[in-house]
Structure formats: structure tokens, C-alpha cells
Amino acid sequence: MTWLVECIYCGHFLYHLNDGRIKCSLCHKKNSKEKINKTITLIYAFINNESALYVSKRLNISYISTSKYYKTFRELCAKISEDEYEKVRGLKCEYEEYFYLESSKKQKDAVFDAYNFLTFDYENHIYTIMMPSLRKYKHQFLEDNVEDAYIDEFSKFKRDAKLIKVSNYFNNIVQFWEYFEKSILIYKGINAQSFAYFLKEFEFKYNHTKDEAIELLIKSYFKST
Hints:
With 225 residues, this protein is α+β, with helices and mostly antiparallel strands. The protein has helices at residues 33-47, 52-59, 63-88, 138-143, 147-167, 172-183, 195-207, 210-224, and strands at 2-3, 15-18, 21-24, 30-32, 94-100, 115-121, 126-130. The chain is globular.
């Protein structure tokens, strides 16, 4: 049986179906309808901010498998974001520095666990760059007995930044921060080594409508695989 539909690998409009397998007559890629449907369903869930744990239970899929898919999706989000940045980098931009600290970390020295990144606004297109972590300096601050002074200065910086944030409420960068802070809560704690990919995930989602994001991920995923 022949179906006139778009190949998710090359964009050609002709599939040949045989025994549940799909083959494109142009690029000759083969895959099962079940695997394609599973991947697209997971992409929809990912873009709709459903956690991997929730989706694995809802769809009765292995959590490990779902997590691997989500990891791949985040990597693709980062790649797409970098490709898009190359197209807008010549535009006029504004930027602000931001420190993000998980709400569960409220102890005095939690400042050393904060994530620091720059946020750029290229005419309503957000782009982020991670800055070096403070964690590696913690022991040195303790040895030099200047930890309290640093924490006090950082607290003052955060108060000043909050005033700036409030006074520029309609700034696109601030709106992204608020979106990021709210959205990141679906993940119950993030590994420091993976934080940059989670940041890029929400940068990608913020820059696109859900329909745009889904289409971009579907095309990128099947081209990459």
C-alpha cells in the first residue's frame, strides 16, 4: 500500500507500507509505525512540560527509556538554539546576568550552588550562556576566612538585582526568567552537570510556540537518527 505523506527523515512525500514497516521511496529509511508514533508522542509530552516520570507512568513506558528520549530532546534543543543564535547574533541585543538557586537550597552557603548565566535578548529572541560555577571556589573562601563577606556581598547583589527586576517587569529577559523559574519546578532537582541542557530546553520552548517547537524537534530528531 502506498501513502502520500511526508517522510520525517527527508521530507519526500511518498511512503511504502509493508507488514507494518514504513519505507521512504527516496531516502530508503525504514522504521516501524509504533516507534515513530512513540517518539512523536514523547515529543508532544516533552514540549507540554510533562516530566519523564509522569509520562512513563501515563504511557506505561520504561522510565529509563523515557529519560533517554528526554535527554536526546534536550540535546536537540541546545543544537537548534545554537543554530538559531547564528542567524540572530548580528542583531542589536540587550543582556542581563542571572543567578538561579533551587528553592530547596536555603542554607547560608547555598550561594556556592547557584547557577550563573547571561541572558541575551536579540529582538525578542532569547539566548543564554552559562557562566563558570562558584562551587570550585568554596574551599578557597573557607580557607581564607572570607566566606561571610562574600555571602553578604552576594545577598546585597541579589537585593539590588531584585529591584532592577521589578522596575523592568515587562523586559523580555525578565519574562524569560519568570518562565524559567516556574517551568523548572517540574523537575525535582537537577544534576549540576546537566543544568545547561535544562536551561537550553526552556530557552528553546520560550522562543517558539508549542506547534513550532514540536515540528522542529520532530524534524531534528529523525534527521539526527
